[in-house]
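@channel sequence for tomorrow's demo:
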Amino acid sequence: MTETLDTSTSTSSLPADGDPSPPRPGRRPWFGALLRRLHFYAGLLVGPFILVAATSGALYALAPALEQVVYDRELHAPVTDTRVSLAEQVEAAQAHVGAGVALTAVRPAPEPGDTTRILFSQDGLGSSESRAVFVDPGTGEVRGDLTSYGSSGSLPLRSWVSNLHRSLHLGDPGRLYSELAASWLGIVATVGLVLWINRLRAARRRTGVVRPKPRQTGYRRLLSWHTTIGATVVLAAVFLSITGITWSQHAGANVGDLRTTLGWLTPSLDTSLAAEESDEGGEHAGHGGTTPDPAGVTDPATFDAVLATAQAINVNTGHVEIVPPAEPGTAWVVQENKSSYPTAGDSVAVDGTTMQVVHRTDFAEFSLPAKLTTWGIDLHMGLLFGLANQLVLFVLALGIGAMVVLGYTMWWKRRPTREPRGLAGPAPRRGALRGAPWWGLAAVVAVAVGIGWFLPLVGYTLAGFVVLDVLVGAYQARRDGSSVSP
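structure tokens (generated this afternoon):
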């Protein structure tokens, strides 16, 4: 993400590092000029959204660690030599919440010193929210009662920061901001990388392009820091852009369709009891099955039995979630939810009345794209490598935010101070496409349409950039009394 808001004017033929490297004979330098102008407008108009996303993302990166401190009593309990059964822990939680509240899942204490989390559905909670009761697995004492969100189990602090990062607490309309930032971040970073490579190739002294220039002053010093930081964080910025798009409203649907078409979906667990084979097997397998005992759904003792069955199959980590049947005719589910490396994603469906395994999925057998999708999401959320992952994300987010601030500062530094109307720096010169061959123009249009279709908010805003550029060009031409083509 380099050279954001680069403001080279039409009166200067020098590259950004000051080296007089004229274009090669016979080559029309239209493409680089086009990229500089795109980088300028994208950085200028989308920069605020990227800055907000980066700042809130930096805060979110630290949220899991802060959560452990803020909710220490709820998440942790004294280590004891005794341990009560899951049934007793569930009973303690049910007594705490009272009658009429449906139990939806249990997450046993994963490590000594942790609490068991028992989740309930309750009126008044939002989508994907649950009421979480925390129980000491050593004594059965209830240590807390909080709202939990999503499969990550984030608590109120992390959920608040997550909603700030995702939607600015404005609901679905607010999610447009994060989708706009995620969609443009990768484009701005990629274009900046190309501009940086071009500068590196043209520079006489390459060390002046890859390192800051603290002895320089003003614009040149800012540019050196901008390019150095950009070259450092560019790949991470593209990764965060790609993974962030998967959560978006509009482009996210296109990503889902693409994964479906390419067969990159994560295998799902079949919880239908009709799929269970009888002991005899044969042609009648799957037709007899078993009828779930209504008591099996609510009987606390079933949690211990189902977990023991799953542990004998493929569940071999303490980070698990036990989900009772949501409706008659379906099985219990025990799934591993350890997001740190090595990722544990095995799951098993168990008939709560016979303790027979209905179906299983094993993370080791997932396709590589499905594994990469899981790892990418966990890495974006700061879960894959724990605290180290979170600290790296924090630094990267600060770096991306610094890129935007440096870009705006450079723009301000390049303003024509002697002109009364010069409130800010000029844009790179227009007219780049006039020097493009027909195939280059066709390629630019095709790429723009393709990206705009897959990333709708990029398409809309890119069209807006073009309209704005034409209007600005027409205004300047009228003011200067000359003809200026966009």
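heads up for whoever presents: Confidence is low (pLDDT under 50) at residues 1-21, 277-297.
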